[in-house]
Amino acid sequence: MSGAPRRPTPHQRQVRAVRLGPRSLAALGLVSVIGVAGFGWPLLADPASQASTHAQDAPWLFAGLLVLLVAVVAATISESGLGPKAVAMLGVLAATGAALRPIGAGTAGIEPMFFLMVLSGRVLGPGFGFVLGSVTMFSSALLTGGVGPWMPFQMLAMGWFTMGAGLLPGPDRLRGRGELTLLAGYGFLAAFAYGTVMNLEGWPFMNALASNVAFDPHAGVPANLARFLAYCVATSLGWDLGRAVVTVVLTLTLGAPLLRALRRATRRAAFETPVTFDPR
Fold it and tell me: What is the rounded CA–CA span in Å between residue 78 and residue 101?
């Protein structure tokens, strides 16, 4: 018997609900660049520039811009192959994620929707993952009344979070405990990354609330990074740790049956099979 790895059968191969073509990749790259600028502009802006003098307007300007860019990305991905079956799958998963988010109301980081995003991105790929993360966060914001200038940043960060799961190695071959360990490790690190990125959205505008750890427009990048690290430790470390632990526990305990269910559903949906009509 040969020890070489067996070639995956058609039923074992990963099904992608959204194929990332050149336009989709360009749109995702554009929105990611704008998003990085939207999150990190305080660290990059010159203290004497007009950006610092209009700091109170910046969240609204970036929010409107990001909403438009995310809509462009979703439309581009849709044009590249998000068919009716994938739209139905997207609706079911986004509704489930939106319903899971209010559980715990974010108390101590109890946010079970994150593990669902990790598993969905893993099974359905990075393109579907980005759309799913953004739509789920938008839906949950409407459901919980959490609509505000922070919402586009949440949509973008969750899109990155879910897309990252779809970019993990071994989507066709890695199964069982090894795959769950990989997903749990990713969920643990990405949960901290999500919280850290989201801290950048509000940190520059909290001068009056936390003067010792707040953004200083006249300080250099190293000094502000040290302030930001202290801000994260003081304000969100407990929530990020809770989110990471919950994601790991749910992935290891519920991940195997949910992965099987998602893979079975995608095989039956046959996203990549073109629809044909027999002539009468």
Answer: 25
Tens-place pLDDT, residues 154-206: 888 898 899 899 889 887 788 889 999 999 999 999 999 998 888 887 777 66
CA atoms within 13 A on the CB side of 208: 0
Residue 16 has phi, psi (to 5 degrees) of -110, 120
CA-CA distance, 204 to 48, in Å (whole number)?
16
pLDDT single digits (tens) 126-149: 878 888 888 888 888 887 766 776
The full 3-state SS of 70-132, as one line of letters, equals HHHHHHHHHHCCCCHHHHHHHHHHHHHHHHHCCHHHHHHHCCCHHHHHHHHHHHHHHHHHHHH
pTM: 0.77
Rounded alpha-carbon distances, angstroms, from residue 2 to 6, 8, 174, 175, 234? 9, 16, 19, 20, 55
